[in-house]
Specification:
The complex is a heterodimer of chains A (about 180) and B (about 200). By secondary structure, chain A is an alpha+beta fold. Chain A contains four helices and nine strands. In chain A, strand 6, helix 3 and strand 7 form a beta-alpha-beta unit. The model of chain A has no long low-confidence stretch (mean pLDDT about 90). Chain B folds into two domains: about 30 residues; about 160 residues, Jelly Rolls. Classes of the chains: A alpha+beta (about 180), B alpha+beta (about 200). At the A-B interface, helix 1, helix 2, strand 2, strand 4 and strand 5 of A face helix 1, helix 2, strand 5 and strand 9 of B.
């Protein structure tokens, strides 16, 4: 009888451990987290505009007036620069790491000028740039990322249907390109 | 003779069965801690950050949405009206009052799981701060109903339970600590049709 109770007690301790492991490991194994879905859209370093209707990619605009485009990148070799401009009512942008934790976000009110111009760099590249700032990046917002991989979501807001073509064009023309910096 | 293997089996069954069951149950019961509740509305300002709790992260990874960043905005969801009754697609509601300060907001209808309920072409299924008509004091009243209404109207005609989703874009709300003082629009049930 004692050994049965002992077996149950050890089982309950084991259950607690399994519970914690399942909760902590679940985000790695769902297979439908945002990072996996963004990567499934296609190659890196280009923006993919999301559709307004639910579709097999799993990603779509929840709100018809808030259009989103996503781009995934890898900056260990070269920084990535996000550029977008156009006549939209409002835009917002945010960057996430591979576990979908927010690393950076901003909107058009907090930018210099009206356009999106952001460069994502590694700490090492940042040091290099402090020594010799490339001319192209002088007006960019420089964001240092601790992890080299991630994705960025750019949103254009079209409050009225007449503004939708402009929002669509804003996202379609947005660049998410790798930037070669000359070693100084 | 089979006593020891039976005990080991019992231990393993309790550990894996109990662990998996409690994890699944816990995930179903809660969508994470750190929610702020304002009347019928709730939001998770920390959901997209690294400081989200493990339950919220598990939900986040399972939903796979591209969430709004802190500088982008905050999403409020209502699953019940002011009296606490679940929102039904067969009832008519009035959403009235003001929103917290934001540069832009949208209001839309979703099912209980958060997937958008899309109205047939030609019917409005969403309103935003530009298209909503206001009274002279800046407050608004939006009717959510199956039959068209004068003024602000969103079509709602499904058999299932629904939720209302209010998305605030570029709002100081996301960063402020004193969420309790914010005004959220009130959700009042007008009436229901027979099922």
């Amino acid at each position: 009888m004692r050994s049965v109770l002992l077996a149950i007690a050890i089982g309950l301790v084991g259950a607690a451990i399994v519970h914690i492991v399942v909760i902590l490991a679940l985000p790695l194994w769902t297979g439908k987290d945002a990072w996996t879905r963004v990567r499934a859209m296609g190659a890196q370093n280009r923006f993919y505009s999301l559709a307004n209707e639910p579709n097999p990619t799993g990603l779509f605009n929840d709100d018809p007036g808030i259009r989103t485009a996503v781009c995934h990148f890898e900056i260990s070799n070269a920084p990535v620069r996000i550029i977008a401009s156009g006549d939209v009512a409002m835009w917002t942008v945010s960057a996430y790491d591979t576990s979908s934790n927010e690393t950076f976000s901003m909107n058009d009110r907090s930018s210099i000028g009206e356009d999106v111009d952001i460069a994502f760099v590694t700490p090492a590249q940042m040091l290099q740039m402090r020594r010799a700032m490339p001319q192209a990046l002088e007006r960019s917002v420089l964001v240092e990322l601790q992890r080299p991989q991630g994705y960025v979501a750019l949103r254009a807001i079209a409050p009225l249907p007449s503004q939708e073509p402009a929002a669509r064009a804003f996202l379609a023309d947005a660049l998410c390109s790798s930037l070669r910096i000359d070693p100084a | 003779m089979f006593r020891l293997p039976a005990l080991v089996l019992l231990t393993l069954a309790i550990a894996f069965g109990g662990g998996a069951w409690s994890a699944a149950r816990m995930l179903k019961a809660t969508s994470g801690f750190g929610a702020i509740e304002l009347g019928a509305w709730s939001a998770y300002p920390e959901l997209q950050t690294a400081s989200a709790d493990p339950f919220a992260r598990a939900h986040r990874a399972g939903d796979g949405h591209i969430l709004l960043g802190r500088a982008e905005g905050l999403v409020f969801t209502a699953l019940a009206d002011e009296t606490g009754a679940a929102l039904s697609g067969r009832c008519a509601y009035e959403i009235s009052g003001t929103t917290p300060p934001a540069r832009f907001w949208t209001l839309r209808v979703a099912d209980a799981g958060g997937a958008p309920v899309i109205a047939p072409p030609g019917f409005p299924d969403t309103l935003n701060s530009w298209t909503t008509l206001r009274r002279t004091d800046g407050t608004f009243s939006i009717k959510v109903n199956a039959t068209p209404e004068p003024g602000n109207w969103i079509r709602l005609d499904t058999a299932a339970e629904v939720s209302f989703i209010l998305t605030l874009i570029d709002t100081p709300t996301a960063a402020s600590a004193s969420m309790v003082d914010l005004d959220m629009p009130a959700i009042t049930r007008i009436g229901c049709r027979d099922a």
